[in-house]
Amino acid sequence: LSGKLNGVFDRLRRRGALTEADVAEASREVRIALLEADVALPVVKDIVSKVRERAVGANVIKSVSPAQQVIKIVNDCLVEALGGGEGVEQAPPGISLQAASPVPILMIGLQGSGKTTTSGKIALRLRTRDKKKVLLASLDVHRPAAQLQLETLAKQAGVASLPIVAGQTPLQIAARAMEVARGELYDVVILDTAGRLSIDEALMDEVAAVKAATRPHESLLVVDAMTGQDAVQTARAFNERVGITGIVMTRVDGDARGGAALSMRAVTGAPIKLLGAGEKLEALEDFHPDRIASRILGMGDIVSLVEKAAETIDRAEAEKMAAKMQKGQFDLEDYASQLKQIGKMGSLSGILGMLPGIGKMKAQLENANLDNTLLKRQAAIIGSMTPKERRNPDILKASRKKRIAAGAGATVQDVNRLLKQFDDMSAMMKRMSKLGQKGLMRGGLG
Ligand code: GDP
Ligand code: MG
Questions:
Q1: Which atom of ligand 1 is nearest to the CA of 222?
Q2: I need a labelling partner for 105 at 20 to 30 A (CA). Which of 17, 33, 229, 379 fits?
Q3: Ligand 1: residue whose CA is nearest its atom 28
Q4: Model pLDDT for residues 63-108, shown as the tens digit of each residue
Q5: Ligand 1 center to residue 72 CA distance, Å?
Q6: Is 62 exposed, middle or buried (0-12, 13-18, 19+ CB in 10 A)?
Q7: How many domains does the chain have?
Q8: pTM of the entire structure?
């Protein structure tokens, strides 16, 4: 048994830390990839320095190259910069409708970015998925056909559009839209504004005035993914002059890698809420930071390779733990690192499953109330002990227990409960270990 386990550990043991040189080399590659993906230069610099900070000194995963490992770190940094990351991966940040009806949504952006199309897409989604009564209103009085374009889209989406009245200003149209929406009990009013080919004062004034008058719950900046480096200026200008609550990135069905998303998010701090992925009204997608990150970096294969290798290390650590349990050498220190592994590996019973002859005990352990808050509190309690106490909890006196409890934000009862649970577990492990030995004599690993 131990021979077999040692083999695994030899192959997977961390062989040290990533060096400056490893990181510098990989950083060059990463910088080029990000620039090719149209991420704005200041944002690239920022990401690269974050990566360097995190990568130098990181434990090396033996089965992948340092460069590959840095790429995985870059990927994690990108996911975070895009609003994702550990614990953030719940529902994508869709449009918020948490306001009194009718909820105004303002669509802003440069001409041709996809505002009108996206208005139709959002209307369709709100009608079909959220069962909302939606009114579309075009405030675009600059392009002759703009209001008709929105009317056509509204019909396709099966929602109402504000009747067109010639000669009104955007502000007048907006006021009329809100009035109609209140009178006819609409849930949502989508206000589609005009754009210009480039940012100008008149455009900003007009949008800002409409915003002040309607006080929209969401002000969505619509930006073409192909905009590349210009996305930063556009996003900054709109955010400073008008203020935005979210970003919709369109034309992700094209071959742009989507670096604009990263730049815009970095500059405005506003979340990317939706993606436009085609001309059809159905082509609206939720934003998933990890997907765009891997598209920007274009190294998805390497990222999953490293993830797999890291998982294997977790597994190897779990096996090491199982071996310790079997020898009856499991102490509170091990229990604490075990608590950290839970979540990554699934559960303690997952690790115990690696021990031979465990069936019945496993069920027993699963019944033991191992919920997450409890585990966290227990980890904190163990953290407040000295290493000596962790190896030999029997030396703990009442006064120490009190201090440990205080240090961990727990009660003395919590400390006692932990010690009792640990005692029970150790006893169980000793029994299991005997069973396991019998199992081994019958031949082999579990
Ligand atoms: P606006 O000037 O911002 O209102 O832009 P429009 O909504 O009129 O869109 C301009 C053009 O881009 C139209 O031909 C749309 O069909 C097209 N378009 C909009 N969104 C997307 C998208 O996500 N993907 C693709 N391929 N085309 C889009
Ligand atoms: Mg338009």
A1: 3
A2: 229
A3: 279
A4: 677 777 888 888 889 999 998 876 544 556 788 898 999 999 999 9
A5: 34
A6: middle
A7: 3
A8: 0.69
Q: How far is the CA of 149 from the centre of ligand 2 (A)?
A: 8
Span 10-64, pLDDT tens digits: 333 334 677 888 788 778 888 888 888 888 888 999 999 998 888 887 777 766 7
Mutate to test the pocket of ligand 1, among 113, 148, 279 (most ligand atoms within 8 A of CB): 279
CATH of residue 26: 1.20.120.140
Looking at the domain assignment, is residue 397 inside a domain? yes
Q: Going by CA atoms, what residue is nearest to atom 13 of ligand 1?
A: 114
Residue 317 lies in a domain: no
Inter-residue contact 57 to 18 (CB < 8 Å) = yes
* Judgement on whether residues 169 and 207 belong to the same structural domain of the protein: yes
- Whether residue 210 lies inside any domain: the answer is yes
**Any idea what the Cα angle at residue 152 is, between residues 150 and 158, rounded to 5°?**
100
Instruction: Please tell me whether residues 74 and 113 are part of one structural domain.
Output: no
The secondary structure element, H or E, covering residue 104 is strand 103-108
- Please check whether residue 141 is in contact with residue 170, taking contact to mean a CB–CB distance below 8 angstroms: yes
Name 246's bridge partners: 220
The residues pairing with 137 across neighbouring beta strands, listed in sequence order, are 191
> Considering the domain boundaries, does residue 96 fall inside one?
no
Query: Ligand 2 centroid vs 38 CA: distance in angstroms?
Result: 25
Domain that holds residue 124: 103-287
Binding-site residue ranges for GTP:
109-116, 192-196, 250-253
185 and 241 in a common domain: yes
Query: How many angstroms does the Cα of residue 189 sit away from the middle of ligand 1?
Result: 20
pLDDT in tens, 149-188: 999 999 999 999 999 999 999 999 999 999 999 999 999 9
Residue 120 Cβ inside 6 Å of ligand 1? The answer reads no
Instruction: Note whether ipTM > 0.95 here.
Output: yes
